[in-house]
């Protein structure tokens, strides 16, 4: 049979925090986007702590995770969630011009850029703990 590759952005090395931020953004869906489904700080904290525990265990560093480590990753993830909105907003603008797929790419671009500008002040105000 034939093999078709899709989602090339997932085929290479990417920033860990970008992939997690993009994952959290996708909680909102694609066709009927609802950013109230974006995980709140508590759920993100639990998810990130579990991720860091599993990572440390895999690397042989034990499973002890500090609040500072979770907070740093939380900030990085949410900063990259902004980058994800911008990336997918630009992608959707290009698709609106060239794609033959029956999808409201322009509407999707607007939704992603609106969420970017909504989140930006709160996310850029986050400070990495010393």
Automatic annotation (TrEMBL):
This is ethanolamine kinase. It is an enzyme of class 2 (transferase). It comes from Equus caballus (Horse). One of its GO terms (biological process) is phospholipid biosynthetic process. Pfam families: Choline_kinase. The lineage of its organism: Eukaryota, Metazoa, Chordata, Craniata, Vertebrata. GO terms for molecular function: ethanolamine kinase activity. InterPro entries: Kinase-like_dom_sf (IPR011009). Belongs to the choline/ethanolamine kinase family. Pathway: Phospholipid metabolism; phosphatidylethanolamine biosynthesis; phosphatidylethanolamine from ethanolamine: step 1/3. Its EC number is 2.7.1.82. Keywords: Kinase, Lipid biosynthesis, Lipid metabolism, Phospholipid biosynthesis, Phospholipid metabolism, Transferase.
């Amino acid at each position: 049979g034939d093999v078709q590759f899709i989602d090339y952005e997932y085929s290479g090395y990417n920033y860990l925090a970008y992939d997690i931020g993009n994952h959290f953004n996708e909680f909102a869906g694609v066709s009927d986007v609802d950013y109230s489904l974006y995980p709140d700080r508590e759920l993100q904290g639990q998810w990130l702590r579990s991720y860091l525990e599993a990572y440390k265990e895999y690397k042989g560093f034990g499973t002890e995770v500090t609040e500072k480590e979770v907070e740093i990753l939380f900030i990085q993830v949410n900063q990259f969630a902004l980058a994800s909105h911008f990336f997918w907003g630009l992608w959707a603008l290009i698709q609106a011009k060239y794609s033959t797929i029956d999808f409201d790419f322009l509407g999707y671009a607007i939704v992603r850029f609106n969420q970017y500008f909504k989140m930006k002040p709160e996310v850029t105000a986050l400070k990495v703990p010393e």
